[in-house]
Q: What sequence folds into this?
């Protein structure tokens, strides 16, 4: 059974930084696309960043471009999201997701497995 566990959320001041991690168990992540999504209260889940199965392509939502960096370590079965210059509007529950498809995938509907989410709160 596939499990995804996110860590690294918390409370941070505007302008601060956090790094989220997502450890996958029960499935080899090599050559599988992965992504980070977030959902703020009262809003729909949105795509934050995605990384291709062979690590040669990345997507960032316009709202996080230049501030967030996605990366993966297949040997550790881990996906990361480094978040810098955080803003109050980044406050949300952040989810990592895995698709059994290759390539890069931008939409939540394309992902097969999800973590439970980790809360990120940006507030002074």
A:
């Amino acid at each position: 059974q596939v499990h995804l566990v996110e860590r690294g959320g918390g409370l941070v001041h505007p302008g601060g930084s956090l790094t989220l991690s997502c450890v996958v168990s029960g499935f080899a992540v090599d050559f599988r696309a992965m992504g980070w999504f977030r959902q703020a209260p009262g809003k729909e889940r949105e795509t934050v960043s995605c990384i291709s199965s062979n690590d040669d392509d990345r997507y960032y939502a316009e709202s996080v471009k230049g501030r967030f960096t996605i990366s993966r370590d297949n040997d550790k079965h881990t996906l990361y999201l480094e978040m810098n210059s955080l803003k109050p509007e980044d406050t949300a529950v952040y989810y990592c997701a895995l698709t059994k498809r290759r390539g890069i995938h931008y939409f939540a509907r394309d992902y097969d497995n999800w973590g439970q989410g980790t809360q990120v709160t940006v507030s002074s």
About this structure: The mean pLDDT is 94. Residues 23 and 78 are 5 Å apart (CA to CA).
